[in-house]
């Protein structure tokens, strides 16, 4: 990511440092311009190939997370193909980011590759820059979906890795058989 040949903005560097210092496990990035939930990888394994499905080793988990958001969103879960975001109806309102369009340097990919944090990108509406009076409606359309997504933090394995004296072990590597992506314990 940092060697991709582009400058990293100071605020982006600060967020990267923050993400590495606190063991976050779940996040979402909110964007405008479409109505869909995307999940990593956002960058295609083959950089010259656009719209190429690029799953992570945790594909099933990411699909579950994205679906938790999409299913709780009143418009994304609407089965009408004639509405904003209707071209994603057959996919359940979710898509692998690189399959939609590939780009490098995204936070969801960074989080997955360099931290313990699983992030999805939520495109909250078809207008890239909604008017102020539209924000209240957008908030209400996304509130329950955000809460449902946040509750997903309680899914999966969790606990404390400790030594024989009960002291927590910092930076212990945790592996799951069959998934080639380890996580580490926090402080």
TrEMBL record:
Residues 1-153 form the Peptidase M14 domain. InterPro entries: CarboxyPept-like_regulatory (IPR008969), CARBOXYPEPT_ZN_2 (IPR057247), Peptidase_M14 (IPR000834), Peptidase_M14_domain (IPR050753). Its cofactor is Zn(2+). SUPFAM superfamilies: Carboxypeptidase regulatory domain-like (SSF49464), Zn-dependent exopeptidases (SSF53187). Belongs to the peptidase M14 family. PANTHER family: CARBOXYPEPTIDASE Z, PROTEASE M14 CARBOXYPEPTIDASE. This is CBPZ Carboxypeptidase. It comes from Brachypteracias leptosomus (short-legged ground-roller). The lineage of its organism: Eukaryota, Metazoa, Chordata, Craniata, Vertebrata.
């Amino acid at each position: 990511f940092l060697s991709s040949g582009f400058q990293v903005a100071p605020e982006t560097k600060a967020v990267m440092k923050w993400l590495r210092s606190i063991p976050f496990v779940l996040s979402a990035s909110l964007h405008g311009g479409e109505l869909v939930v995307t999940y990593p990888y956002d960058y295609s394994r083959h950089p010259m190939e656009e719209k190429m499905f690029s799953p992570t080793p945790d594909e099933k988990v990411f699909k579950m997370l994205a679906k938790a958001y999409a299913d709780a969103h009143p418009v994304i879960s609407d089965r009408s193909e004639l509405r904003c975001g209707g071209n994603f109806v057959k996919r359940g309102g979710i898509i692998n980011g690189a399959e939609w369009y590939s780009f490098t340097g995204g936070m969801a990919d960074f989080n997955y590759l360099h931290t313990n944090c699983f992030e999805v990108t939520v495109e909250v509406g078809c207008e890239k820059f909604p008017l102020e009076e539209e924000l209240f409606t957008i908030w209400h359309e996304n509130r329950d979906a955000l809460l449902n997504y946040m509750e997903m933090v309680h899914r999966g394995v969790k606990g404390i890795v400790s030594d024989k004296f009960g002291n927590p072990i910092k930076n212990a590597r945790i592996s799951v058989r069959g998934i080639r992506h380890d996580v580490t314990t926090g402080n």
